[in-house]
């Protein structure tokens, strides 16, 4: 029997067994083994065993207990969990089969096809793939139609810095007059004018840099080679996530991590 953990339960497991927990799958979906983003993923997570899928394009992630999963299968597990949460939220024994999935604007056709394949494995019928900032812009405009005027566009920029990437989208809103028979109709119109992005700049990159900074401080204090200890690095990565959040509200914090490795504790004062 296979037991799958998500969210905090998975992150807790990752601290002790980092090679058993797969994260940041959007960096792998729809890509080949020689893709630069896959190489970066392998550098960030050197304890994962990733190979090419011999039966199709894409990748296989090998679990240390002898299991193997394609990236589409892992994403399908996440989508299945999301569907369960949505059904529980709606209640009334509702069964969700149709959906719209938001994706990064920079996704290639291979990446989009991989998302569709994962959704199919999860038993979902995808009505539309929508770029994430376009979805935000649509939501914003729906509730502000009265703010827009005829043939005089208003311009907005939507900026999103997520865990793995940063995107910015420039859009315009205006009202267009059309006719339905003899009756004029005022139709709100959204136009996406431009998109910019950085696929590797996100909150997780900041967390990784904080982890490496903590690792260097620990190494200076303990004289231990922490960079070749996957469990120690996993502990420091988890702590780096807390540090990132704390430094967003504080200029100075005290970092404490018990038993980073070889029963050696770590303590450091960080300032920004």
Structure description:
The protein is an alpha+beta fold and 272 residues long. It folds into three domains: 7-130, ATPase, nucleotide binding domain (Nucleotidyltransferase, domain 5, 2-Layer Sandwich), CATH 3.30.420; 132-198, no CATH class; 203-271, Actin, Chain A, domain 4 (Alpha-Beta Complex), CATH 3.90.640.10. The protein contains seven helices and ten strands. It has helices spanning 7-16, 36-44, 71-90, 109-121, 132-142, 203-222, 230-247, and strands spanning 49-52, 59-62, 68-70, 98-103, 125-131, 154-161, 166-180, 183-198, 252-261, 264-271. The strands form four sheets. A three-stranded antiparallel sheet has the order 1-2-3. A three-stranded antiparallel sheet has the order 6-7-8. α3 crosses α4 (109-121) and α6 packs across α7 (230-247). The longest helix has 20 residues, at 71-90. The radius of gyration is 23 Å and the shape is globular. 20% of the residues are buried. The mean pLDDT is 90.
Number of domains: 3
What CATH architecture of the largest domain would you give? 2-Layer Sandwich
**Highest-level CATH class of the largest domain:** Alpha Beta
SS strand fraction: 25-35%
Radius of gyration: 23 Å
Percent in helix: 25-40%
Strand order of the largest sheet: 1-2-3
N- to C-terminal distance: 48 Å
What is the CATH topology assignment of the largest domain?
Nucleotidyltransferase, domain 5
Class from secondary-structure proportions: alpha+beta
What's the story with the biggest beta sheet?
3 strands, antiparallel
CATH-assigned homologous superfamily of the largest domain = ATPase, nucleotide binding domain
Overall mean pLDDT score? 90
């Amino acid at each position: 029997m296979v037991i799958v953990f998500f969210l905090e339960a998975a992150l807790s497991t990752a601290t002790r067994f980092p090679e058993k927990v797969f994260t940041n799958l959007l960096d792998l979906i729809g890509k080949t083994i020689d893709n630069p983003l896959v190489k970066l993923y392998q550098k960030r997570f050197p304890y994962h065993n990733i190979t090419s899928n011999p039966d199709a394009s894409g990748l296989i992630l090998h679990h240390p207990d002898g299991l193997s999963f394609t990236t589409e299968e892992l994403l399908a597990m996440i989508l299945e969990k999301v569907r369960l949460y949505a059904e529980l939220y709606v209640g009334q024994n509702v069964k969700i089969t149709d959906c719209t999935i938001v994706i990064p604007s920079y996704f290639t056709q291979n990446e989009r096809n991989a998302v569709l394949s994962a959704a199919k494995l999860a038993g979902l019928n995808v009505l539309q793939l929508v770029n994430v900032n376009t979805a935000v812009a649509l939501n914003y405009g729906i509730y502000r139609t009265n703010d827009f005027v005829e043939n005089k566009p208003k311009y907005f920029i939507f900026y999103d810095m997520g865990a793995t990437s940063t995107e910015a989208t420039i859009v315009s809103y205006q009202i267009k007059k059309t006719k339905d028979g003899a009756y004029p109709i005022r139709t709100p119109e959204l136009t996406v004018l431009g998109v910019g992005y950085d696929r590797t700049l996100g909150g997780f990159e900041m967390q990784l840099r904080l982890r490496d900074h903590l690792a260097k401080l620990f190494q200076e204090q303990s004289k231990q080679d922490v960079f070749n200890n996957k469990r120690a690095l996993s502990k420091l990565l988890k702590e780096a996530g807390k540090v990132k959040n704390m430094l967003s509200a504080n200029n100075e914090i005290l970092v404490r991590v018990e038993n980073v490795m070889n029963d050696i504790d770590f303590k450091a004062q960080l300032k920004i």
